[in-house]
Design brief:
heterodimer, A: about 325 residues, mainly alpha, about 75% helix, globular, B: about 450 residues, ABC transporter involved in vitamin B12 uptake, BtuC, two-stranded antiparallel sheet, 19 helices, 4 strands, about 70% helix, about 5% strand, ABC_transp_permease (chain B)
């Protein structure tokens, strides 16, 4: 039981921090531009694929730097030539645009890299168990993922709260017109934030590709969970996104690890049931089975009972 | 039309907070004025005639299959547009009502077969619709609180939730293989047991007509008109004395009903439903159909359903890149033609009325060849690129437009590149003349958008 809890805590931390790398960019973009970027997870996927291609030529480490930069550039171009063009039609049109973009990027990835999972693996330098506990290994690569994510978190926090650029960004979130009147180029700030947000997603893809697999559906798998994270955390709130990322990371890993089912509960209560009953699926429901839907249940509950999210300041 | 546009311009200022009214939202209101329904009667008559003679024109088995699929898509896309086009609610989970209506219809079909329930098949879509409604009521009760982004998020969450449930509850959803039934076991209707595809076609055609008519009539009821008002400016609608939430709720429930009907039609046509029918892919597909067709028009989703079903069934036989083309089409529509294909056609209305379509025809005529060259070049490049990227070593033949091209040689690439570049360049050169011709034909300066 103890090792179960420890490993679930660690794995949940890895998932949660990964989610945070995506959700931090998404929530920043949302709070500035009011756009929920449906294609955010697609940039994550692009990051993994770019890094894969780079790694086949020059190895893993250059890809760690170059791929996020390329993805950031792609994001900035999308903002400049796509989103800004659609902006005048309102937020719903922007949401539809990013949805179409997500659809298109998945097709483009299949065009260039095919449908099969790519053999993108962790560098050999990190392919060893960091420590062994109760006979289970904890891979060094996961520790590396934690390290990178925490580094990004600290870096982001420092930039936003300590630098001039960060102050302008924070001001542009709440008062874009005032910032513009003070002589700052707000569209440029928007483009920059969109680019940096995409680059963060790309970096998440680079480090998640070897661990979670690099395949055309990877954006789809993570995309809606990231939405859940930023809504649960409170739209536009970075600390909220952080808390919600970890919460959902742990929620999922613990649900998979703990094999409890409704029938166990019924056994304890001394209730028996007919195995041919119409509701038989309900009786035998177990936690690992419902693990994929827990985030969405949380989302719906939050939207009903606390629409501004855990730490959001405004009602969504 | 002009009346709506002035209205939107006036409310544009408050748009920052309540969401600006984009051009694609404006409904072509010519046809919606009081007493205008009688004027649309010939259109409904023509639709009836067309639906009746279609199987005579396209009598092949493939043709009938495609038309059946179109009919289902038309009802589904129209029901989606009750949310997006008429109510301003962007849903990413509309397949939930379609799928659940369909699943329950198959179950009812099985009850008819095994438990001797009495239900003529033409009534089954209405049963599916009631089930769609039954799910739309509880979900709509909390999701219609707000429109815009929040509604989109809730619909996505609910959509994912139901899709995930469909894998867990095997007894109801049948797991991976889905639930299947047999439509022929009900009491015969006019001597028909719906054994053949054509009989099913006439059933679907009838339901499509009835459903479309009712959806059109709904858009003209006070509930439908208030849905437009709430879409355009929810604050003003509240000042008139309507609860924006309740207005959206009514539209949402009606939309769920018709989506369930489409699901019932799907159950009749395919006799099987799987998890795919209610997941996010289907929800996205209906958004594509409605938007590419044009959400600002009642006929928009019909056009979209027909075009995309054709792409899905015909184009997919010729190229494995068809989804890439659909994606490109969708993104281009969102960026450059936000009122959809119907909007592109409707744009020429003023020119038609003033009899100045001839000016445009000449300009378009000059652009046809460069456009075709450009498209052919791009398609050739994509198809050859696909072969060069994906195929096994040694295989280097691309089959495009009935041609067989060897992608390992340079010549086809050069030709394709020349076509794309030459066509593209000519189009760019022609663009000012097109814009000028359009402005002259419609009698207004700078009306190119």
């Amino acid at each position: 039981m103890v090792e179960l809890v420890i490993f679930s805590l660690l794995n949940g931390l890895v998932t949660g921090l990964l989610l945070f790398m995506l959700s931090s960019g998404l929530t920043l973009i949302f709070s500035m531009m009011g756009v929920l970027n449906f294609a955010h997870a697609s940039f994550y996927m692009l990051g993994a694929y770019f890094a894969y291609t780079i790694s086949t030529y020059v190895g893993f480490w250059p890809g760690l730097i170059v791929a996020p930069l390329l993805v950031g550039l792609a994001g900035a171009l999308v903002e400049r030539y796509g989103l800004r063009h659609v902006h005048r039609h309102g937020h719903v049109a922007e949401l539809i645009f990013t949805f179409g973009l997500a659809f298109l990027i998945e097709e483009i990835v299949q065009f260039f890299w095919g449908k099969a999972t790519k053999d993108y693996s962790a560098p050999e330098l990190l392919q060893f168990p960091l420590f062994t506990l109760y006979g289970q290994n904890f891979p060094a690569y996961k520790a590396f993922m934690i390290l990178i994510s925490v580094g990004i978190f600290i870096g982001l926090f420092t930039v936003l709260s300590r630098t001039r650029v960060g102050l302008i960004i924070q001001a542009a979130i709440t008062h874009p017109h005032t910032v513009s009147n003070l002589g700052h180029n707000v569209p440029l700030v928007f483009m920059g934030v969109f680019g940096v947000g995409s680059a963060l997603a790309g970096l998440a893809g680079v480090i998640a590709g070897p661990a979670l697999g690099t395949f055309p559906g990877m954006a789809f798998v993570l995309g809606s969970i990231v939405f859940v994270v930023i809504v649960v955390g409170g739209l536009g709130s970075l600390p909220g996104a952080f808390v919600a990322s970890l919460l959902i990371g742990w929620l999922q890993t613990f649900a998979i690890a703990l094999d409890w089912s409704v029938s166990d509960l019924l056994d304890i209560l001394g209730i028996s049931f007919d195995s041919e009953h119409v509701l038989r699926d309900l009786w035998t429901l177990s936690l690992p089975q419902v693990a994929p839907i827990l985030p969405y249940i949380l989302l719906v509950l939050i939207l009903i009972f606390r629409p501004r999210g855990l730490m959001g300041k405004r009602e969504t | 039309m002009s009346a709506t546009e002035t209205g939107s311009a006036a409310t544009g200022k408050s748009g920052d907070r309540t969401g600006a009214e984009p051009a694609w939202k404006r409904v072509a209101d010519d046809q919606m004025r009081r007493g205008a329904f009688r004027r649309t009667l010939p259109v409904w008559g023509a639709a009836f005639v067309v639906l009746m003679i279609m199987p005579l024109l396209f009598s092949s088995a493939v043709g009938v299959t495609i038309m059946n699929q179109m009919g289902i898509s038309i009802v589904f896309a129209l029901s989606y547009n009750m949310l997006l086009g008429q109510g301003g609610m962007l849903s990413f989970g509309h397949a939930v009502y379609f799928g659940l209506g369909g699943f329950l219809s198959v179950h009812v079909m099985n009850y008819v077969e095994y438990d001797g329930w009495w239900l003529p098949l033409p009534l089954l879509p209405f049963v599916g619709g009631l089930f769609g409604l039954a799910f739309a009521v509880p979900i709509g009760s909390f999701s219609t609180r707000r429109a815009g982004t929040v509604f989109a998020m809730i619909s996505l969450g609910v959509g994912e939730l139901v899709a995930a449930c469909s894998i867990i509850f095997v007894a109801f959803f049948g797991g991976e293989e889905g639930v299947s039934g047999d439509r022929t076991m009900g009491p015969p209707v006019f001597g028909s047991e719906f054994l053949s595809e054509v009989e099913v076609y006439y059933l679907i055609a009838g339901i499509v007509l009835v459903a479309a008519l009712f959806m059109y009539l709904f858009s003209r009821t006070p509930a439908g008109r208030m849905a437009n008002a709430v879409r355009d400016n929810e604050e003003r609608a509240e000042f008139v004395g309507y609860s924006q939430r309740y207005v959206r709720f009514v539209s949402f429930c009606a939309s769920g009903f018709f989506a369930g009907m489409a699901g019932g039609l799907f159950a009749i046509n395919y006799e099987i439903l799987t998890e795919e029918n209610l997941n996010l892919v289907t929800s996205g597909w209906v958004l594509l159909m409605a938007f590419i067709g044009g959400v600002g028009f009642f006929v928009g989703p019909i056009v979209g359903a027909i075009v995309l079903t054709l792409l899905q069934t015909v184009l997919s036989n010729h190229t494995e890149l068809w989804q890439l083309y659909v994606g490109i089409l969708f993104v281009l529509t969102v960026m450059y033609a936000p009122r959809g294909l119907t909007g592109l056609v409707a744009m020429h209305g003023p020119a038609l009325r003033t009899g100045r379509l001839g000016i445009l025809a000449r300009a378009y005529g000059a652009a046809v060849v460069p456009l075709l060259a450009f498209l052919a070049g791009v398609v050739l490049l994509l198809e050859m690129g696909n072969v060069a990227n994906q195929s096994v070593v040694g295989e280097s033949e691309a089959h495009v437009f009935g041609l067989t091209l060897d992608v390992s040689t340079v010549a086809p690439w050069l030709v394709a590149l020349a076509l794309a570049a030459g066509g593209g360049y000519a189009l760019v050169r022609l663009a000012p003349r097109l814009r000028d011709a359009f402005a002259r034909a419609t009698g207004q300066a700078g009306a190119a958008s």
